[in-house]
Amino acid sequence: MGFAVFIEPEGELRTNILRWKEMVEVKYPNQSYCLHPPHSTLIHVNVKQEEMAIGAVGEILKDFTAFKNRIVETDVFWNDSAAGGGHTLYWKIQSNQILFDLQRQVAESLYPFLSSNPEPTFVKNAPLLKNSFDRYGSPFIGNHWIPHLTIASLKTGQNDPLIEEFLEQSCEFELDVTEVSCWRVENDQHNCLEKYILYETS
Fold first, then answer.
1. Region 17-46: what's the mean pLDDT?
2. Within 10 A of 43 (CB to CB), how many other CB atoms are there?
3. Could you report the per-residue pLDDT of 55-65, keeping only the tens digit for each?
4. Residue 188 has what pLDDT?
5. Calculated CA dihedral for residues 125, 130, 134, 139, nearest 10 degrees
6. Which residues contact residue 59 at a Cβ distance below 8 angstroms, ignoring those fewer than 6 apart?
7. What is the mean pLDDT of residues 82-96?
8. Cα 117 from Cα 159, distance rounded (Å)
9. What number of H helices and E strands is found in the chain?
């Protein structure tokens, strides 16, 4: 069963992502990721014992308080092998140690519940991705992870006007991380299972 842990944007940032997803869907229907809810993925793995996995994530999150972050730029994963070769448009989140610690601890909490996970072909010749996959069941756990919020992955030319328009935006968005959510993911279907509030520091 696909199981993911997300950070979800709020306010103007969420509105912007939804608007861009709609623009992509109108111009290029059925592009990868376009129908997914606005989110940044901490981890996406296959698990057994879903209820226990949710509980394990909740226990880890008790050690984290809400924190502020921000968007640093628009960018593209060109020829994104994880998305079947499309150009993946995304908002890049400022990397910081809190995010990396949060991701790593969530990944470690899920390790006992991992179920068989076929290795993606794109990790075979990428040692960092392969090591992460072998250890956590996901190729993107660790300091090589690029925290981001995806719009969609476009099967178009690199100089497509929609991509150019996306990249020309200003990026004055805050990302306040006040909760973390657990989801069941099956292809494009995303069902929220649990939301955990990260409490403010006193």
1. 96
2. 21
3. 999 999 999 99
4. 84
5. -140
6. 109
7. 93
8. 35
9. 5, 8
